[in-house]
Amino acid sequence: MATQDLTAAQFEETIADNDIVLVDFWASWCGPCRQFAPTFAAASENHPDVVFAKVDTEAEQQLAAAAEIRSIPTLMAFKKGTLVFNQAGALPAAALEHLVQQVKDLDVEAALAAQQAQGTPDQV
């Protein structure tokens, strides 16, 4: 499955309606963003069961602000509507593959219950 462009109008629905969504916040002028794009696209081909979405922070400035994007590229992963990963910086292919597998394997309900019990932030 190829990556899809995501707008503010589609964001919440995409997160809510899909089991796993990875979102790449990027901009055309960002060198690391351009370097990460082929890695992100290749991963999307390897995982057709995962939604790989891209948000152009220049075109979607309000969405980027709402997501508190301070540096790009920033990668977010959502599972069952819950943010489970949020990190700035381009990931190498192996690290991205590892992240996708971790998100697939994550029992988000159990993780949320454990976090509530410990009071820790939500991160894989």
Automatic annotation (TrEMBL):
Residue stretches making up the Thioredoxin domain: 1-105
- InterPro entries reported for this sequence: Thioredoxin, Thioredoxin-like_sf, Thioredoxin_CS, Thioredoxin_domain
- Any coiled-coil ranges, and where? none
Q: Tell me where on the tree of life, at the top rank, the source sits.
A: Bacteria
What single Pfam family name could you report for this chain, choosing any that match? Answer: Thioredoxin
Q: Where are the transmembrane segments?
A: none
Is Repeat among the key words of this record? Answer: no
The record, for PROSITE patterns, names: THIOREDOXIN_1, THIOREDOXIN_2
Its keywords, alphabetically, are: Disulfide bond, Electron transport, Redox-active center, Transport
Family under the similarity heading: Belongs to the thioredoxin family.
NCBIfam families hit by this protein:
thioredoxin (TIGR01068)
What role does this protein play?
A: Participates in various redox reactions through the reversible oxidation of its active center dithiol to a disulfide and catalyzes dithiol-disulfide exchange reactions.
Report the protein name in the record: Thioredoxin
Record the organism.
Answer: [Mycobacterium] vasticus
Point out the gene that encodes the protein: trxA
